[in-house]
Design brief:
It comes from Araneus ventricosus. The chain is an alpha+beta fold and 121 residues long. Helix content is 16%, strand content 36%.
Length: 121
C-alpha cells in the first residue's frame, strides 16, 4: 500500500473552483451556497479571511488547510473521501485525494503582484 492510499475512492466527479477571496468575510459567506448550487467538492482559495489560524466563516465540518503566510488555502467538503495533507510552505498548500482513476494532487498557491517590487526595494 502506497503512503497516499486511502481506504475509499471517489466515484463521482471532482469539482474544483479557484477563487481569490480578497480577505472578504462576505466572499467566504457565499462559499457554502456556491458549493450546494454548483456541486463543488474543493475550493482552492487565495487571500482568505483568516482568524486565529483558520479560514473564518467556513463550516466546522469542512476540511481546511492554509499556507504558512495564510495567503493560499484549500477547503474540502466532508463529502470528499479522506483528503490527505501533503505540505504547506510560505505561499502554497497541497493535498492529495484518491479517485477511481488514481490519486490527484490539489495545490493552491499565492503569488503576490508586488513580489518583484518587494525583492528589489
Amino acid at each position: 500500500n502506497l503512503p497516499w492510499s486511502t481506504s475509499s475512492t471517489t466515484t463521482t466527479a471532482i469539482d474544483v473552483i479557484q477563487i481569490n477571496l480578497a480577505k472578504s468575510k462576505v466572499a467566504i459567506a457565499h462559499l457554502e451556497k456556491l458549493a450546494s448550487e454548483i456541486n463543488i467538492n474543493h475550493f482552492l482559495v487565495q487571500e482568505p479571511y483568516v482568524k486565529e489560524g483558520k479560514i473564518a466563516g467556513v463550516p466546522r465540518k469542512w476540511h481546511q488547510w492554509l499556507s504558512s503566510n495564510n495567503k493560499a488555502g484549500i477547503i474540502s467538503l466532508p463529502s470528499t473521501n479522506n483528503p490527505i495533507f501533503i505540505c504547506s510552505t510560505t505561499n502554497l498548500t497541497a493535498i492529495k485525494i484518491q479517485t477511481i482513476t488514481g490519486p490527484v494532487n490539489l495545490i493552491s498557491a499565492y503569488s503576490s503582484p508586488y513580489a518583484e517590487l518587494q525583492d528589489t526595494a
